[in-house]
Amino acid sequence: MILVWFVYGLAFFVLGLVILVYPKKDSRFALAHGLWMVGVFGIIHGLNEWLDMFIGTPIAIYRDWEPVRIGGPLGPDLLAWVRMFVLPASFFWLVLFGTTILTRNTKRRRLLRILPVLLAVGWLVALLLDESSRRPLVENLWSRYLLCLPGTLLTAWALLLEMRQFRALGLRSVTRDLAVGAATFIAYGVFAGLVVRKDNFFPANMLNYETFTSLTGLPVQILRAICAIVAAWSIIRVLDVFRWESHEALRLSEARCATIASAMPVFLFMADPRMIVTFIQGKGLEVLGLRPEQIQGQHILEAFPCGERLMDYCRQALSGQEFAATVLMNTVPFEIYYSVLRDRTGAITSVVGVALDVSTEMEAQRELDEYRRKIEKHAREAAVGVLSATVARHVAEPLTVTQLVLERTAADLAGSKAVDAVRSGIGRSLSELSKARETLNRFMEMTHPEAAAAEQPIGLYQIAKRTMSVFAESALRRKLTIAVKDMDAVPLLTISPREVEQIFYHLIQRVIDAADGKVERKLTINCSVGERCVELLFCDTCDGIRAQPAGNVLGHVLSDTNDIDSLGLSVAVVKRIVTGHGGQITLEIGPENATLRVRLPATRTY
Which CATH number fits the domain that encloses residue 417? Predict the structure, then answer.
């Protein structure tokens, strides 16, 4: 039996040790987060069986070469008392494992969470109530009835539930090993949780060691040892799934990396501290006319165009910095993100670079800058036109009055004996005033809105998004969110796309100027289709729509009666464009926001 106890304890001890040291970090399997409890059970239970071995091992104590006493090395009573606490402690971890796995991510079995506490309290009550000298033997029975049998059955149940996840992944060997492990724990629960030492209460008086041996001819410890060996073998085989998971994650990562690298204008490379390229892959190499096999194993200085700059950046990365830099390779701009790989000690082993061809992005940025300059130029021209027309209109009025006064004065002097010089001066003044009036009339005709063109479909959404892209950075700095809603309509309008751009530009710029950048603000642009008209609604939460510009020295010039006209030059430009095409512009003020409603006539909407 000594050998049986030794193998019995060794099997569980090895099981626990392997589980505890096997890498399972960051696993997505629920089993990984609770299996360590089985490991703790294995370690403690293995020690318990070795205590049984020492308790049952006779050792002869010699004096003068004659044996004088036979007993355990530390005394069987002491070991039995130690074992009285070690045995239930080991089974408690099985109960905890089963309830943890069974109640994870579910509310149906949440009452199982209190089961470990109830069983532990029950065992402790049994310990406190038994004051006989047979306490270690009695507590051995209660440990098996209250903790071993429930713990093994719960563990088997948990392992069987985990089979579904691995079966769905097609891992037949893992599923089979889990089934073997579950069956083994059930068998172990019968042999270790029901077959106990004989005692004078049920079921120990009927199902015990003597009864089992008489029926089977084998000590139950042999079958327990076999269960321990099979359980250790099956659970250790299950641990291989975590290695499979790591390899699968690595394979998927490599596949994703290869897919991205082959589908995008990007290449990835790694270089060791000697600046030797150890890995490179990606479609971006095609732009440079290079292939991976040409570069791998080469020094960075020789492998890439502008190798000197790349080598300087790699050295900077080897110092532990993570950064991005743009380099020009064969006239193609690449933005390279540098990072490092470290070993377990934290030492840097490689530089990792991700190079992205940004020529398309740079071209798009150049186009956006050009569009920004163009729309800003048009905005300035429109603003100057509105201001000039307004000033010309106000100057023309006193000129007209002056001309009328001079004409009347000349008529009054026509029949008198006025000095010829006076009449001549009045005549010259009238001539110059007529020239000034003609100049102002021509100027005002030049500053009129664009003449109504033939109806054409206007993509409001495209114009809105293109105009918003001009303000993307400034809106972000001012904490302003610009939202476009219900802008799918494509109406037939006489207004030109350039003028629609100006409407969006001036009103968005007005709201951005009003946003203070301290709190989040919002501008919502809606489009509604009415009968033979399209309405654009600009609604903001930062008083940009309704507020008069600070220091509005032109307010009295632009208007002194109408609320719309008093909102400043930008709204005046919008009004001039809208009314010039037969539209209307109105202001609606609410308690928390203001809405500017722009109505444009439309004969049809797609």
Answer: 1.10.287
